[in-house]
Write a structure and sequence with these properties.
single chain; alpha+beta; about 35% helix
Length: about 500
């Protein structure tokens, strides 16, 4: 019983308190009449009062129309970072323009041409929520009040300006490094509102302007352009604020790497190092100490030069143009070392080499296969009919140093018949060349050919002469091959 009385008493007290509250007058919206008599802050506080303006709602929430936000940028600093960082720094002024009819004040303050504010005005009005999708880091250039500026026109047009610096990712393709051309971009996307209620658009006239004092060091600005697109929001990957299509803007600039630095610090020094490796061709083949020292020092110098340059590049799976140059130069330096080892081995031989002709073909054959001349001579002996029919009595063994054809090149004793009056046979010697000449002559005459008989002339070269001969040819061959390699390489990097 007492409990019911207490509940009834509490209900009476609550009803009386609620009745008093309902009788209190609601807060009235401040009047906008005679707006010119108010200061800018006073008039703005009345214009954006919560009774008539909600900054969390779109300017067109009542009509359901699309809000068009026009963007423009003024770029006054671009600093591409090192290639291994894959990013660049950008200093720019971003301007956004849209129309908010709720802020139109032409009827209330006709003499007021513009309302200008900073962070205090930003906290009162609606602003589109944008972000840079390829951003690594960004910040205002200074304080909020210094680097944010908002102006409101009498018809409700809002101009939002913000000075920013940002480090943006740039996924570079370094296959033609350091002759590469990179395309880097700044991507602006809507985060909160999808494309059905908010559209981002570049200004029609000069959407992106570059400062006249903009200068780049490692790169040169070749071109730049803008485009508008729509990206698909993905809730699973948290791509944007929600599912749907979102409006996006992109500003792309094309950068060409300046090769002057790499020519002076990498390519020209590497050419000089490769040319230094050719000095060994002017040294005697048995000068092992200076030739080995010069070859190894040029090899190590070039590897040090190439490794210092490669430290500035990321570790990628594909081969770069700079690595092709590195492999080509290493190949020439290594070939010079191999050439020295080859001629030094020949120089230390003791036997004289027999040659049919003094040219590259026979010198290399006799050098690589020293017994090749002997084998060829034996084949000719077996294939000659005149020699097979002649009766050999004995062979005259001669020293290799005096016989141009070596131990296998023999003089054959043949027996000739003379008139019966003498009754004594006469023994004469005939060289192999004469026999081959006669047999060839008979064979040709039997066929009725007028061609002169073939005559094999043999000569000798000492191993030292062969080594010197190879060094002299290398003095010309290596520079010509390096020039040919340069023609192919520079054609590839500039024409392909």
């Amino acid at each position: 019983m007492n409990r019911n009385i207490f509940l009834c008493f509490l209900l009476v007290i609550c009803n009386s308190a609620l009745g008093q509250k309902l009788k209190e007058p609601l807060p009235e919206c401040p009047s906008l009449e005679k707006g010119d008599t108010y200061t800018q802050s006073e008039f703005l506080s009345r214009l954006a009062h919560e009774c008539r303006y909600d900054r969390l709602l779109l300017p067109t929430y009542q009509t359901g129309e699309v809000v068009f936000v026009h963007a423009s940028a003024y770029v006054y600093f671009i600093q591409p970072a090192e290639a291994h960082d894959l990013n660049f720094k950008l200093h720019f002024l971003l301007q956004l323009r849209w129309t908010d009819r709720r802020l139109a004040y032409a009827l209330y303050s006709p003499e007021r041409t513009k309302i200008i504010g900073e962070s205090d005005l930003r906290s009162r009005v609606w602003i589109p929520h944008l972000y840079m999708s390829n951003e690594q880091s960004s910040s205002l250039m200074g304080t909020d009040s210094k680097d944010v500026l908002i102006s409101i026109a009498p018809d409700g047009e809002v101009l939002f300006s913000r000075r920013m610096q940002a480090v943006l990712y740039c996924w570079m393709n370094l296959q033609k490094f350091p002759f590469d051309v990179q395309k880097c971009s700044m991507n602006l996307e809507s985060w909160k509102y999808n494309a059905s209620i908010l559209r981002l658009m570049w200004e029609k006239d000069n959407p992106v302007r570059l400062s006249s004092e903009l200068h780049l060091t490692e790169y040169s600005l070749l071109d730049f352009w803008t485009n508008e697109s729509v990206v698909r929001g993905d809730i699973v990957n948290m791509r944007l604020g929600g599912a749907g299509n979102y409006s996006a803007l992109k500003f792309t600039f094309k950068l060409g790497r300046e090769v002057g630095y790499y020519l002076m610090d990498y390519f020209i020094p590497s050419m000089m190092i490769v040319a230094m490796s050719w000095v060994t061709f002017w040294l005697q083949a048995d000068a092992s100490a200076p030739r080995i020292t010069l070859g190894t020092s040029t090899m190590l110098s070039f590897i040090t030069l190439a490794s210092s340059q490669a430290k500035t590049l990321p570790k990628v799976s594909y081969i770069k143009a700079s690595e092709i140059w590195f492999l080509g130069c290493i190949g020439f330096i290594f070939s010079a070392l191999v050439e020295f080892a080859f001629v030094n081995t020949i120089w230390r031989r003791k036997k004289v080499v027999n040659l049919k002709k003094v040219n590259s073909k026979y010198i290399l054959k006799s050098t690589l296969t020293p017994r090749l001349a002997r084998k060829e001579l034996q084949k000719e002996l077996q294939s000659s009919p005149q020699l097979s029919n002649s009766r050999s009595c004995s062979s005259l063994n001669q020293d290799t140093s005096s016989d141009p054809a070596g131990p296998a090149y023999n003089n054959y004793l043949t027996v000739h018949s003379f008139p019966s009056a003498l009754n004594l046979p006469t023994i004469t010697t005939q060289s192999y060349d004469e026999l081959v000449h006669r047999s060839g002559g008979r064979h040709n005459s039997s066929e009725g050919s007028d061609e002169p008989p073939k005559h094999h002339t043999w000569t000798q070269m000492t191993p030292q002469e062969i080594a010197t001969w190879i060094d002299k040819r290398s003095r010309v061959l290596f520079p010509l091959l390096f020039i040919f390699f340069n023609i192919i390489y520079w054609t590839f990097v500039y024409c392909l």
